[in-house]
């Protein structure tokens, strides 16, 4: 699980599901990060990601 970045350009970060190369049944799942103001659309540092992942896991 990692972050889905709707405004990502030139990368695969805007794809919700991506097959992992060299595997048959493994995928990367990307989820939107939401704040009280809506969807977080831009890239953020991995150190700022943890609160979003904690919220998603709840």
From TrEMBL:
Sucrose synthase first GT-B domain boundaries: 1-58
Upper classification of the organism: Eukaryota, Viridiplantae, Streptophyta, Embryophyta, Tracheophyta
Biological process (GO), any one: sucrose metabolic process
Similarity remark: Belongs to the glycosyltransferase 1 family. Plant sucrose synthase subfamily.
Keywords: Glycosyltransferase, Transferase
Gene3D superfamilies, A to Z: Glycogen Phosphorylase B (3.40.50.2000)
Superkingdom of source: Eukaryota
Catalytic activity annotation: an NDP-alpha-D-glucose + D-fructose = a ribonucleoside 5'-diphosphate + sucrose + H(+)
Record PANTHER family: PTHR45839, SUCROSE SYNTHASE 3
InterPro entries per UniProt: Sucrose_synth_GT-B1, Sucrose_synthase_pln/cyn
Signal sequence, start to end: none
EC number: 2.4.1.13
EC primary class: transferase
Molecular function terms, GO-annotated: sucrose synthase activity
Record has Glycosyltransferase as a keyword: yes
Pfam families in UniProt: GT-B_Sucrose_synth (PF00862)
The protein, known as: sucrose synthase
